[in-house]
Amino acid sequence: MEKKYKVFYQGSLYGHFGRDRAGKEIAVNKSFTWGGEEWLVPSVYFCGKGLVADMFKKVSVDSFREFIEKFGLDENSDCDGFSDEQQAEIEAENPLNSDIFASIQFGGRKSDMEFSSSDCWNPLFPDSGDAAEALLDRYGLDKSFCWLAVRMSIPWRGRKPKKSDSLTLQLRAEKIPVPGAHFKANRPGDKTEFINPVTGKKHTLTVTAVEQQKFSKLRHTGGKEPPLCTIINYDISPEIPMDEISVNDRSEPEKPRGILAPRGKAASAIGIIGGADGPTVIVTSSASGRTACSSLYYEPEYEPDWCMTFYDKPREDIEVELI
Questions:
Q1: How far apart are CA 117 and CA 13, in angstroms?
Q2: Backbone phi and psi for residue 156, each to the nearest 5 degrees, phi listed first
Q3: For residues 65 and 156, is the Cβ–Cβ distance under 8 A?
Q4: pTM of the model
Q5: Other C-beta atoms within 10 Å of 249: how many?
Q6: Please, which contacts does 239-244 make with residues 24 or more away whose CB atoms are closer than 8 Å?
Q7: How far is 25 from 6, CA to CA, in rounded Å?
Q8: How big is the chain by its Cα radius of gyration, in Å?
Q9: Could you read off the pLDDT of 196-208 as tens digits, one per residue?
């Protein structure tokens, strides 16, 4: 006898990590197009704590082959050897990458996704994507295509709806980073003209303040950390919303000198004090609220490599009626 397929609210594509009971499957077989891409919700599961929805994005092998050939990728590729900008570009163009936030609407109530898991099936690299492959077999989907598989858990708000209640899935794609222009900021008044790669519009960034600050030594690390940081204030004209652009220092961050190897419990006390996106403390701001911090460094002559990052929403929000 074939073992009954079980899906749990406290679970993922990789296993069950709670003590709740398996949910009741409701086949919906809902296909839809979102942002020019093919999507499918084959089934949802009514569990005690909430709804579990399995969702797939279908991608042609030719599209994925074109993507990996453009960036010289293979099944063993990782982040090593790629700059932050290259990684952002790869992430933005990966047809099997999709950062999704979901809600459900039922009985006049809305509930937001609590957690999700995902995996990819790619016939070009068949030795990976075991969880996605198992799900394709479960739903009888064509494995000659590439697939992104997402399992989402969304809690009930109030009473558990009945099978006859209407149920709408609301989907939102999160913004993805798009690398932009590099520029210098040596003194107030420096200007940089640039094109927003998301909108194609021309803008001007004007530096309004440049300040080099020195941080106190963090004694618990047992070494000498880079003590200096450059902070700039800037304005952009015409304005770009704050959540659509950021400025970071793309120079390679300098590592603390003379750090003693941590032992025992002390190993867990080491904290990150800076990185490619600058230190964690913002100590000043401009009238427009636009401030950027460099990586930490040792020598006063250090010149940050300022870079703009834009944020693009790849597709508009959508509502899908499941029941």
A1: 6
A2: -75, 150
A3: no
A4: 0.76
A5: 28
A6: 240/196, 240/203, 242/289, 242/290, 243/175, 243/311, 244/175, 244/198, 244/310, 244/311
A7: 9
A8: 24
A9: 999 999 999 999 9
